[in-house]
Design a protein that fits this description.
- The chain has one helix and eight strands.
- It has 174 residues and is an alpha+beta fold.
- Strands 1, 2, 3, 4, 5, 6, 7 and 8 form an eight-stranded antiparallel beta sheet that branches.
- A hairpin with a 4-residue loop joins β4 and β5.
- The radius of gyration is 28 Å and the shape is globular.
- 16% of the residues are buried.
């Protein structure tokens, strides 16, 4: 019994010493992360590679008035390795932007675009056709960026635009 007790006395302190050596290493690794950097939190509980059909994303302002509406016929969920964020790759998209009163300001048709989930932005790298309400303008471009939360859009060139200039009889006096 005495030899067994002596062996335990020598083994236990050496195990505790091993734990002490390992623990600081783990703490160092944990401290290498930037405390200001948020861990990736998926806004979608859908695995990468999944395909979603007929997705509708409405956006409202603080007063619950419509700002924009995005419809996508087919969406593929992807993870961007560079930014560690979720991207939705959409095909056959439509974007409606609304004015302050909630009336449609413009309608846009896009063949394919990426929807950046965390930024709530749509980035089109394909043909974009935007038509203003009442046919006041039309624009065609090779891409665009749409902020769905603010209802703003930037069309990327090369682009062409056509505007309907009102005649004198169409202009109302203030």
């Amino acid at each position: 019994m005495k030899p067994l007790l002596l062996i335990l006395i020598f083994i236990l302190p050496s195990c505790q010493e091993e734990k002490r050596r390992v623990r600081p290493t783990i703490q160092k690794e944990a401290n290498t992360e930037d405390p200001n950097e948020k861990k990736k939190e998926s806004l979608l509980n859908v695995p990468a590679g999944a395909v979603i059909e007929d997705l509708i994303l409405p956006y409202y302002n603080d007063d619950q008035k419509k700002v924009s509406l995005l419809t996508i016929e087919e969406v593929t969920v992807a993870d961007d390795i560079r930014t560690k964020k979720t991207i939705l790759k959409g095909e056959h998209l439509k974007v409606w932007l609304f004015d302050e009163e909630g009336a449609i300001r413009s309608t846009t048709v896009i063949s394919s675009a990426d929807y950046l989930v965390n930024k709530e932005q749509l980035v089109a790298k394909s043909e974009v056709l935007m038509i203003g309400s009442n046919g006041k303008f039309a624009a065609k471009s090779k891409g665009g960026i749409f902020s769905l939360t603010t209802g703003q859009a930037i069309l990327l060139g090369p682009a062409t635009a056509q505007f309907k200039i009102p005649q004198k009889k169409d202009i109302k006096a203030p």
